[in-house]
Amino acid sequence: MTGTPPGAGRRPSVVHRLGAGTKLLALCGLSVAMPAVGSLPGAAVAVVGVVALYALAGLGPRALWGQVRPLRWVVPVLAAVQVWTVGALGAAVLTTRLVVLVALAGLVTLTTATSAVLGALERALRPFERVGVDADRAALVLALTLRTVPVLTALSGRVRDARRARGRERDVRAFAVPLVVGALRQADALGEALRARGLDD
């Protein structure tokens, strides 16, 4: 999610122009529907659909890879477990569904400003104020959670590049320690910003 979506300066694509609420509802609907995909042809159609949506948004393969890249360590492990439990075909379908959903979530964050997502969530949660839900705070928490994903992804990329520059690609501590410290600093800065706006309780 970004306040300056990729492609800023160019004419926004039809995907960028869609309302945040529409995109979030579509993402929820696809997340519910995706488990119904149970065959390789169905999974292939889903992959083609995601690639087409990125192209429609004016985002190339690099942007798509940037969203699913963090899964490159998770997918092999998950696939190995699935091969053992449900077989190779089931493993291929399940892991493809996971990658497709992450790519779709990434597309929403790449093409939607944080403020638009926050507004959509506030409107969606407003009816629940009758049962004591603080719509503004709940929407803020959800928006911050969504925003945290690309922030941590970017941080992990910087830490990885720094580790590579020092010639310590295989040193787990050289990756984990700066990543944890950087994440804590981000959290501390966020906490300070929230406190400065009176959101300290």
From TrEMBL:
Membrane topology listed for this record: Multi-pass membrane protein
Predominant subcellular localization, coarse grouping: membrane
CDD domains: EcfT
Family annotation (Pfam families): CbiQ
Top-level taxon of the source organism: Bacteria
TM stretches of this protein: 20-37, 43-61, 73-94, 100-121
Intracellular or extracellular location(s): Membrane
InterPro entries on file: ABC/ECF_trnsptr_transmembrane
One cellular component term from this protein's GO annotations in UniProt: plasma membrane
Keywords, alphabetical: Membrane, Transmembrane, Transmembrane helix
PANTHER family reported for this sequence: PROTEIN ABCI12, CHLOROPLASTIC
Protein name in UniProt: Biotin transport system permease protein
Taxonomic source organism: Isoptericola jiangsuensis
